[in-house]
């Protein structure tokens, strides 16, 4: 007769197995929910991993739960499970929990490293391998990330178990900025028998560069405004004292003040225009216009200015065709800026042409308008930076000609909004050609313009002749 010891609440083997299976299913469902939440909601990676590690550890412990003590007589011919079978089952469970933990870390979108006590990298997820291409499992972390602050933080966390956040830079190929958070990992054995730390690595390069660009922009804008303002204040003081009774000096100084005030007005207008363009840069225009017509009207409006400057402006673009989806006023500003630059820097007796660009293999399925000049040309080292704010090839010449350093930056941001490209071809002594490329449009269901292709990010394509 079978006797069972139920004094401590032990369950029968069949019931015990059913309970273990049920718990395993619930834990698996909880782990799946965690992974879904980690993708949908940006949980702190260390918190997400800690919860996942606890779940994996619980899964690993399921085979070792309390087992019923049975004194039942085994069935004839049946053999009770031996110690080897129990150990094999426990080992298989540990391997499954380790694979589960590694899969969890692999799927998290944040770069994560697992480093063992001896410094060996136990595991690096795909996000970490993308952020740090030199990362290899099995290598010492100090040989991969050669940053003293990072090495000290990892060693200190191994020593006292405290969490640390540090910043470091890498100089391979180009300078990159990172922020790392180091914490002790629960000892579940999922990544090896040694003590482990988990490291979250965030690439801050883009944010750092954006902050630097903002700082540079503020500094440049302040300088550009301060220079004409200082000149105006100086001449005002002179007129109030020494030149008060000198009609000739007074007229000369008033002329300079008017020129400097006009320069300030142009700079403020360009800054406001750039701010408005950036505010709506994510909104794609839908109205249909003729690119040729816009270029023709913008260029012919500058004919009187060209005559005053002694520049031969030739408008050779047809007055219709090349339909595009766009903002008419902004596209007119693009061509006005390009033609004005060509006349300004081409110099007296320069020839400036505005014409329809022939089809280009580099820009398939696009329509283009080119603005060329016979000026001195641009050295190749300056071409890639022409669309940067306040960048000038010759700063003093630009200021003397009334330039603000924002004209091509405005062109670039307008083309960004339109999904267009700016091609620049130039060489010293051979003049320059600036070509605007836009996707043609066809009429949509409500009379709106629809681009024939998907929008692509717009950048300036610098082509050195």
TrEMBL record:
InterPro entries to which the protein is assigned, alphabetical: BphY/WalK/GraS-like (IPR050351), HATPase_C_sf (IPR036890), HATPase_dom (IPR003594), His_kinase_dom (IPR005467), HisK_dim/P_dom (IPR003661), HisK_dim/P_sf (IPR036097), Sig_transdc_His_kin-like_C (IPR004358)
Key words of the record: ATP-binding, Cell membrane, Kinase, Membrane, Nucleotide-binding, Phosphoprotein, Transferase, Transmembrane, Transmembrane helix, Two-component regulatory system
Coiled coil segments of this chain: none
Enzymatic reactions: ATP + protein L-histidine = ADP + protein N-phospho-L-histidine
Top enzyme class: transferase
Locations listed in the record: Cell membrane
Pfam families listed in its UniProt record: HATPase_c (PF02518), HisKA (PF00512)
GO CC, one annotated term: plasma membrane
Gene3D superfamilies for this protein: 1.10.287.130, Histidine kinase-like ATPase, C-terminal domain
Positions of region (Disordered): 445-465
Biological process according to GO: cellular response to phosphate starvation
Compositionally biased residues, Basic and acidic residues: 452-465
Membrane spanning residue stretches: 21-40
EC number: 2.7.13.3
GO molecular function terms attached to this record: ATP binding; phosphoprotein phosphatase activity; phosphorelay sensor kinase activity
Span of domain Histidine kinase: 220-442
Name this polypeptide is given: histidine kinase
Annotated organism of origin: Amaricoccus solimangrovi
């Amino acid at each position: 007769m079978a006797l069972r010891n139920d004094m401590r609440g032990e369950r029968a083997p069949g019931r015990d197995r059913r309970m273990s299976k049920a718990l395993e299913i619930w834990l698996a469902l909880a782990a799946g929910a965690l992974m879904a939440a980690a993708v949908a909601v940006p949980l702190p990676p260390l918190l997400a991993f800690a919860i996942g590690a606890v779940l994996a550890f619980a899964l690993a412990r399921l085979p070792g739960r309390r087992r019923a003590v049975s004194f039942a007589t085994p069935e004839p011919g049946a053999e009770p499970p031996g110690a080897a079978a129990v150990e094999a089952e426990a080992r298989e469970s540990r391997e499954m929990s380790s694979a589960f933990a590694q899969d969890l870390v692999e799927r998290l979108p944040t770069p994560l490293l697992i480093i063992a006590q001896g410094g060996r990298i136990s595991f690096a997820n795909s996000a970490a391998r993308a952020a740090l291409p030199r990362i290899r499992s099995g290598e010492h972390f100090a040989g991969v990330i050669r940053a003293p602050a990072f090495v000290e933080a990892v060693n200190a966390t191994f020593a006292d178990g405290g969490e640390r956040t540090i910043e470091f830079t890498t100089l391979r190929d180009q300078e990159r900025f990172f922020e790392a958070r180091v914490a002790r990992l629960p000892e579940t054995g999922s990544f090896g028998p040694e003590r482990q730390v988990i490291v979250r690595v965030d690439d801050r390069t883009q944010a750092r560069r954006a902050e630097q660009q903002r700082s540079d922009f503020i500094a440049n804008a302040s300088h550009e405004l301060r220079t004409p303002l200082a000149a105006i204040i100086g001449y005002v003081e002179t007129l109030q004292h020494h030149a008060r009774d000198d009609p000739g000096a007074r007229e000369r100084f008033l002329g300079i003040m008017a020129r400097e005030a006009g320069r300030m007005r142009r700079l403020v207008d360009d800054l406001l225009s750039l701010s408005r363009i950036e505010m709506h840069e994510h909104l794609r225009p839908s109205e249909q216009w003729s690119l040729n017509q816009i270029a023709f009207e913008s260029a012919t409006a500058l004919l009187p200015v060209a005559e005053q400057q002694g520049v031969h402006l030739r408008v050779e673009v047809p007055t219709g065709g090349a339909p595009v989806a766009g903002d008419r006023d902004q596209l007119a500003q693009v061509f006005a800026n390009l033609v004005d630059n060509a006349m300004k820097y081409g110099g007296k007796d320069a020839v400036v042409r505005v014409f329809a660009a022939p089809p280009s293999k580099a820009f398939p399925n696009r329509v283009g308008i080119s603005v060329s000049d016979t000026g001195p040309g641009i050295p190749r080292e300056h071409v890639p930076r022409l669309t940067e704010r306040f960048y000038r090839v010759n700063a003093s010449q630009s200021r003397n000609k009334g330039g603000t350093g924002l004209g091509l930056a405005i062109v670039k941001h307008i083309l960004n909004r339109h999904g267009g490209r700016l091609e620049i071809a130039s060489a010293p002594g051979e003049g320059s050609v600036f070509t605007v490329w836009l996707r043609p449009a066809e009429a949509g269901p409500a009379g709106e313009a629809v681009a024939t292709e998907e929008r692509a990010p717009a950048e300036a394509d610098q082509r050195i002749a």
